[in-house]
Structures are given as C-alpha cells and as structure tokens.
C-alpha cells in the first residue's frame, strides 16, 4: 500500500500526525487551565468578595447601633454629638459596602433572589438604625426605645435570616465549583491517558512505517555496498518502489552494471597492455641498434663540419683584412677631400679680398678726379684774381698735376686688380672641380668600404652559422647518446609495465562478475603471446645496405628521436635554406610510415639515396650539415639566408634541455 509512497511524503505525514497530537494535547491543557481559572475566579468572587462585602455592611450597621447607644447614654452633649456623627459615618460606609456587593455580577437566578431578599432586609434594618439615630439626636428616648425594641429588632432578625441564606448559597456555590473542578480534572486525566496511549501507538506505528520504508531498505543497500566493496558484482539489485529509496537502488544497479563493464574492460585491456609492452620492448631493442648507427654517422658529420668551419674561418679572416685596408683607403680619401675643401675656402676668401681692393681703388680714382676738378676751379679763380692770385695758381697747378698722376696710378692698379680677380676666379673654379672630384673619390671609396664590410659581415655570419651547425651536430651526437640511454630506460619501463599489468590483473581478479567470474591468467597468456607475436620494427622490407664506408652512419637517420608532426620543423642556422628546408619539410612524411614499420622506413632511405660523403649530409638525420654540402650555384643565396640564420639557431642550442624526455615520447608514439 505504501511501497511507492515518497519518503518525504511519509516523513511529512508522520510529523503532521505528531504535530496534530501535540496540538490536541496543548488545546486540552489550555481548556483545562482556563476552566480551572474561571472556577477559582468565581469562587473568589462569591466566597470572598461578596461575602466579605455583606459581612462588612452588617458589621458596620451593628457598630452604628453601638455608637447610637453611646450617644443616647452620653453625659455631655458634645460626646453625644460625636457619637452620633460616628454612627452616621459607619452607617454610610455600611451602605457603600452593601452597594459594592450589589454591583458584583450574579451568575445564577438563585443568586439574584438571594440578593433581592438581602437588599430588602438590609435596607429595612439600615432605615430602622437611621431612625434610631434621629431619635437619639433629638434625645427622644421613648421613640428610640420603641424603634430599637420593635422595628430594629424585627429588621435585624429578618436580615440575619437573609444573611444565613446568603452564606448557605455561597457555601453551596463553593462546593459546586470544587465539584466541577474535580470532575474536570478527572476528565482531563482520562483524556491525557488516552492521548498518551495514542501517542505511544503513533510512535510505534511511525517506527514500523519508517523501518519498513526507510531503515530496512537502507540496511539492504548497505549490505549491497559492502558486497560490491568486497568485489562481488553478482548480487542482484532490485528497485522495489518508485520513491527515493527505489531511485537509490536504481542508481546502485546502474553503478553495479557500470562497474561490471569497467572491470570487464580492464580485464580485457590488461592482456592488450601486456602484448603492447612486449612489442614496445622489442621495438626499443631495434631502436637501440639504429641509434648506435646514427651516432656513428653524426661523428663523421661532425668531423666534416670541423674542416668546413676551418675553411670558412680563413675566408672570414681574409675578408676582415680587406675590409680594414678599404677602411684605411677611405680615411686617406676623406683627408684629401678635407684638404681640397680648405683650399677652395681659401681661394674664395682671396677672391673676396680682391673685390674689396678693386672697390677701394675705384674710390681713390674718384677722389683724384674730384681733386683735379677742384684744382681747375682754383686756377680759374686765381686767373680772375690777377696778380694777387698768381701764387695760388701755382699751388693749384701742382695739385692738379698730383691729381692726374694719382688718377693714372689708380687706373693702373685697377687694371692689375681686375686681372688678379679674373685669375683668382678661374683658380677657384678649378679648385671647386677638384673638390667635387675628390668628393666622388671619397664616395666611391666609402661604397667599396661598405661592400667590403658587408662581405666581411657575411663571412663572419657564415663562420658563426657553421660553428652553430657544428655545435648542433655535436649536440645531436650527445642527444643520440642520450637517446640510446633512454631506449634502455624505455626497455626497462616496458618490463616494469608488464609487471604492473600483472599486478593490475591480480587486483582486478578480486571482482566477480556474472557470466563465470573469469580471472585472467596474465602469465600464461604472456607466454603464449610471446611465441606468436611478431617483432615490432623488424621487417623483411629492409633492403641490403650499400652505403659507403664514409657515410655508414647516416642510414638509420629516421630512428633519430624527432619532434612529433604537430610541432613546427626546426630552422637550421646555415647559409643554404634550400638545402635544409627540403629535408626538414620532408621529415613529417618520413616519420609517419615509421609508426607502423619504422625499420622499413629506415631501410628504404639508403636505397633511395646512393650517397657520397658530401651528399649524405643532406638527409634529415644530418640536416644541420647540409649547408656546406650544397652546389656552388646555391652559394649565391647565402646573403639572403644569413639574415634568417641567427633567430633560427636558437632551438638548436638547447637540445639537451628541451629534448631530454622528448625522444622517449616520440618512440612511444612511433610504436
């Protein structure tokens, strides 16, 4: 009935039922307390307040009667008046107390009847006492005695009867209140016992419900988890409901199925790992032999690179000396040009001075002409003066003679100066042409010097590139030696991998799955597979070796640990990009066939290239040495290659730091 009930819904129902029971107990307790409080208030009102007010009123009237008797029997009038006033006050207080009783609520009809009779009798007795007081105040003893013995006595007897009836009513009400409280208490005891029984039954029912819906399924799930933790995957997991517990068992069943599939896949993969590890070991053995051949090839390449480096270094020294001689010639030409420039400046200054002298001579000629005119005017004036001007005429004649000679000398000097200016101008033009020629000589020598500097720089760069290639080949030799060590480590790792596969099989063997619970016998399968599995990397496609003795080592070049195809090909710091780029570009294509049969690719390359000692260096295994093995026609491209050589040489200088673990990854990938 409740098998598909949600756990949340069941818990809410249990909590709701418990809350309803708690609320019922609370309401009943509140009702009982409220009823008891009401009974206590009624009892207090009837038994205490009303009875106390009535008694206080009756006692007050009796005290007023005593005061009236004292006043009537007083010796002095002052005492009588005082006692009469006290009696009046006491009577007024008694009426107030009775009025307080009348003001209290009456809950029953009997209470109202008792109140009516008591009020009538109290009013009659209070009126009789008041009349007694008036008679006493008038000192009318006869009337006083008459009222006291007749009216007051009868009213007092009636009031006493009414008081007795009221006390009887008050005691009855108190008894009824007590009886009702006792009955209510007994009823509450019965209800509380019933509620306690109901609560106990509810707790037992809730426990049974939760045990059936929650505890036992969780215990069963815990047992299943323990069995799965122990490796037993054969237990049947059933989801018997659709609630949260059912969803838990469904998830547990999915987990068991997934774990069963995983264990089965691991068992299957263990055998494959063993076969793969054995193939890796065989491939590493073959790789080790080819790595040794590559090391021999790199040693020969390194020797050739040493010779080439010596030749290029000598060429660089010669180019450097020629550059120095060209620089010296350029300095001499520059000094000659500077001297010619100074001569040109001097000639220009002489020309300017000659022009100034010509101007000064022109000024002197003008002064002589004006002096001549003045002498002529002076002679004319002397002739007009007659005898008195003869001496002045003689002086004027001499001055004119001197002016004419000065003018003649100025003309001659002017002619000489003009001839000098013309000759200086011609010489200045010749010096300027000589300066221009010397400047052209300086520019030509400078261009020659620049060209020689470029040749020297190119030779230096070529020498540096050859040295870098030499270092790269040396480093490749070191890396090859390291690869040989890594191959041995890989073989040891393959053996360790086989051991780990055996341990993994033993670890997975603890799981029992449906379908027989088979445990893989790794060792027996390993022995059987070792008799049938082909040797990886050893192929019948290897052609017979026909390499020259000088280049016997470059044959196993494809076995060199290369960068994965995803990495960009390395740039070599050499002078011939065409000789190195082609092998580098062809390297990814040469690596891919090696993934299925690297020994076949290693044997195919010697057959494809019958190598000479120089041509053998253009292979990918010795691609760094291909720059100095190119044809003379390709050597014209060296200046263009030098500008790219220095940045490309950076990766080659760090093989020991960056390729320490790379060969192992390449070898693993190739297998």
From TrEMBL:
Pro residues biased stretches: 555-568
Kindly list the places in or outside the cell where this protein is found, as annotated in its UniProt entry: Cell inner membrane
* Alphabetized SUPFAM superfamilies for the sequence: Aspartate receptor, ligand-binding domain, Methyl-accepting chemotaxis protein (MCP) signaling domain
Keyword Transcription regulation set for record = no
Q: In its UniProt entry, what is this protein called?
A: Methyl-accepting chemotaxis protein I (Serine chemoreceptor protein)
Please list the GO terms describing molecular function.
transmembrane signaling receptor activity
The protein's UniProt keywords, in alphabetical order, are: Cell inner membrane, Cell membrane, Chemotaxis, Membrane, Methylation, Receptor, Transmembrane, Transmembrane helix
Q: Key word Transmembrane present in the record?
A: yes
Q: Where is this region: Disordered?
A: 528-671
> Which one GO biological process term can you cite for this protein?
signal transduction
Q: Where are the transmembrane segments?
A: 12-33, 190-210
Q: Where is the HAMP domain?
A: 212-264
Pinpoint the Methyl-accepting transducer domain residues.
Answer: 269-498
**Family the UniProt entry places it in:** Belongs to the methyl-accepting chemotaxis (MCP) protein family.
PROSITE patterns, sorted: CHEMOTAXIS_TRANSDUC_2 (PS50111), HAMP (PS50885)
Q: Where is the composition biased (Low complexity)?
A: 574-595, 613-638
Q: Name one GO cellular component term.
A: plasma membrane
| InterPro entries reported for this sequence | 4HB_MCP_dom_sf, Chemotax_Me-accpt_rcpt, HAMP_dom, MCP_chemotaxis, MCPsignal_dom, Tar_rcpt_lig-bd
Q: How does it sit in the membrane?
A: Multi-pass membrane protein
